[in-house]
Amino acid sequence: MLNENNVNENLIQSQVTIPSGQTTSNSINTRGASLVAIDTPSVLTGANITFEVTNNTGVFKPYVNVSGTVVTIPVLVDQHIGILSTDFVPVEELKIVSDLAEADDRVFILTLRPI
Q: Of 2, 24, 64, 98, which residue is least crowded by CB atoms under 10 Å?
């Protein structure tokens, strides 16, 4: 449902941060919602991101698709990247992983849709 500002009230936004000198963000609990978009920071060191996920085990693993391929997203700075539902199914918790250590703290905004 859209509100008066044409914003989908059912969407959830959360942020994760990759700390300076690191490759992996903090985790967020998705509460079973599906990732539908990522807003990237205005500066990035890495050129690609992948994901680590867990489902109630506390052990994070690389996120792979049904073909057994690690889901990798090429990223550009200051972009809103749509995520295809065929690429990402709901998980309990997730982290973003950069392919290079970030030179400063990098904040990503994640948009999720409850299912």
A: 2
Q: How wide is the angle at C-alpha 31 spanned by C-alphas 11 and 104, nearest 5°?
A: 75
Q: Whole-prediction pTM value?
A: 0.88
Q: Where are the domains of the chain?
A: 12-113
How do residues 6-50 score in pLDDT, each as one tens digit?
Answer: 456 789 999 999 999 999 999 999 988 899 999 999 999 999 999
State in Å, rounded, how far the first CA of the chain is from the last one: 14
CB atoms within 10 A of CB 83: 18
| Share in percent of the chain as helix, strand, coil (round to 5) | 0, 40, 60
Contacts of 30 (CB under 8 A, 6+ apart): 90, 91, 92, 93, 94, 112
